[in-house]
Design brief:
- This protein is an all-alpha fold and 273 residues long.
- The chain has one domain.
- Helix 4 runs parallel beside helix 6 and helix 5 runs parallel beside helix 7.
- It is globular, with a radius of gyration of 19 Å.
Length: 273
């Protein structure tokens, strides 16, 4: 695992602080966020109940941060590889919850994008980690946390791009142009989600919790879109159904084939991913 460094302690502290920051700022800004985002309703926005997943995300983030802060986890090779990325994502979402009520929506969108990018890196590093380096707790705490969070960030970024296009007058809100743009974004998001799921399935970590939790969250968002938009836009509703089928088929399709370095059947030697 290598020697313990000051960076390890800083990483642990950053994750705990970030998990608390994102939960605290979002809680206190919740009413203002609803007021600001309620000014427009994109034709690909999920039903209100779907946003309840934030409670699960914040709870998992805190559980993950506390687990990663244990002295015994300080030199954990997997947590070392993902820790700074998860901490950055936490702080970005905390900043997002401050920018939205202030009306700084482009800055808010940039925070969502950075959080998505950081969580994607963490997801890929988890997927490619050596199974011998990932404890059962890491597979059941870190993997679902990253998978669910990344899944929701995938959906959030797609919806936010559509919303910003309407706000800047690129398409008329509620019209065919927005429905068409929303459908294109949904299909692009489904393609991206499929690629992310495949990366998790074919990784070396032997942690199906990662890609399955990601897929389940994307499906949760898509189902929420169907529920919210079935009487507002047949086009976006139908596209959401098709997107859900794509994601489900990829998630439940062919078994993962990736092998870890140093395990039977691998052509390479052992090593730490």
């Amino acid at each position: 695992m290598g020697e313990e460094t000051a960076g390890d302690l800083a990483r642990q502290a950053a994750n705990v602080a970030g998990a608390l920051f994102q939960a605290g700022t979002t809680f206190f800004a919740a009413a203002a966020i609803r007021e600001q985002t309620g000014q427009s309703t994109p034709l690909i926005e999920p039903a209100l109940y779907a946003f309840g997943i934030w409670g699960l995300i914040f709870s998992l983030s805190l559980a993950y941060a506390l687990y990663a802060a244990l002295p015994s986890r300080r030199k954990d090779p997997v947590l070392r590889r993902i820790g700074w990325f998860t901490a950055t994502a936490f702080f970005c979402i905390g900043a997002w919850s401050l920018f939205v009520p202030a009306g700084r929506l482009l800055l808010a969108l940039s925070m969502l994008s950075i959080a998505f990018a950081c969580l994607l890196v963490a997801y890929l590093r988890l997927a490619r980690s050596h199974p011998g380096n990932a404890s059962a707790a890491t597979r059941w705490i870190a993997a679902p946390t990253v998978g669910i969070y990344l899944g929701w960030m995938t959906a959030a970024n797609v919806v936010s791009v559509d919303s910003e296009a309407v706000r800047f007058g690129l398409v008329r809100g509620g019209g065919f142009g927005e429905a068409l743009l929303g459908s294109v974004l949904l299909l692009a998001g489904a393609g991206l989600a499929a690629a992310i799921i495949l990366a998790g399935k074919t990784g070396t970590s032997r942690a199906p919790q990662l890609h399955l939790s990601y897929a389940a969250t994307v499906l949760w968002a898509l189902f929420g879109i169907v529920v919210a938009q079935y009487d507002a836009s047949l086009l976006t509703t139908g596209t959401a159904v098709v997107s859900a089928l794509i994601v489900a088929l990829v998630a439940l399709g062919a078994p993962r084939t990736g092998r870890a370095p140093g395990v039977p059947g691998s052509a390479t030697g052992s090593g730490v991913a």
